[in-house]
Amino acid sequence: MADLLALSTEIIDGGLTDRPFNRTSNELSEVADGLAIVESFSHSVVVDTGDGLVAFDASHAMTGGKVVEAIKGWRADPVSHIVYTHGHADHVGGSVAFAEAYGELDVVGHRNVERRFERYAMTNNWNVAINARQFGGVRGDFGMGDYPDFIPADTARPNHVVDDHDELVVGDRTIELHHARGETDDHLWAWMPNERWIASGDFMIWNFPNAGNPQKVQRYPIEWAAALRAMIAKEPELLLPAHGLPIEGTDRIAMVLTDIADALDRVVDDVIEMMNAGEVLDTIVHSVRVPDDILAKPYLRPLYDEPEFVVRNVWRQFGGWWDGAPSRLKPAPDAQLAAEVAGLAGGPGALIDRARTLADAGDFRLACHLADLAGWAAPTDPEIHRQRAAIYRARRSTETSLMSKGIFAGAARESEAVADSEPT
What we know:
By secondary structure, the chain is α/β, with parallel strands linked by helices. 46% of the residues lie in helices and 15% in strands. It has 2 domains: 4-261, 4-Layer Sandwich (Metallo-beta-lactamase, Chain A), CATH 3.60.15.30; 332-419, Alkyl sulfatase, dimerisation domain (Serine Threonine Protein Phosphatase 5, Tetratricopeptide repeat). The chain is built from 16 helices and 13 strands. It has a 7-stranded mixed sheet with strand order 1-2-3-4-5-6-7. Helix 12 crosses helix 13. It is globular.
């Protein structure tokens, strides 16, 4: 068993960023008497109640079996309850393995979890595609195959439904459940008052908060920050996230959660101030920043999501989808615009040549605009797309966040497929 608390203390107190934070070993570590974490994708936080085990989250369908195996190696008692901190696939898909191992379970989740599952069924192929793009940028090409289920069809549905607040008493453990919107609209965090433990789900992920994911539904940074402050008010002694390391110590937990809440509040406040001043999204996106010293903290690095995307999500929440540019209210098709610009520039080759020059100079934002125009103007030209792919591969290597890496790698793969085909 790893000493996860010692590791997180060393990282936080020392400001270290060269230690492993988000590990998916599927190994179990006991972090307190009757409390363990299986580090997986996501973690499963397991509490021994003296009358069965309560697991916070079941991990992903691909890892649920290994999580169950780890739990069985820790306790012979069965898991009697799964508490979904929220309904994301990496938190609920493993419930199939739990049900196979332990039989009928009490499954606890917020009222909106069922609505999420219905949405996943309705948009299954879309969700498979965007996850392949999101994670394919760092883990290879996650092909879509025959559109497998985004979550297993037999994923356990909540049979204990929570609204804003609820309380579970299982064995000798009392668990208070609190709903708050943050990464999702169906998120719960759990407070165990006797032990002073909090299972925080994805409210804390040891990265900059996933409050701006460009391919997913609305996130809620204002409520997210408020939930973190509500956790601080409980004065917990242990914080147990669903990704990353557990944290011990009331003062240390308060410092970490305050830093995260302050970062979110700063982005929201700056965006709304500029919106109220009449600024358009383009100006806001290129103006609002989180200071580098904040983003350098080991639990706030933009390695998954990043502040620029949160800016866009705040705009979407309060300003709608139109970005303020009149031409983009009812735009021409991309290919038509690209053909017109290419004609003025001297052809798609002139656009891609200029894109390569800009990329070589490090101006990838502008380079990618021109590379896209060239690609849209010449959708079957292998050489144009070979160069477009090279530009996006180069840009991917300069990015920090998984979101950016995934999307830029996806763009490169699109053009590589054209480059490898016969010209028409």
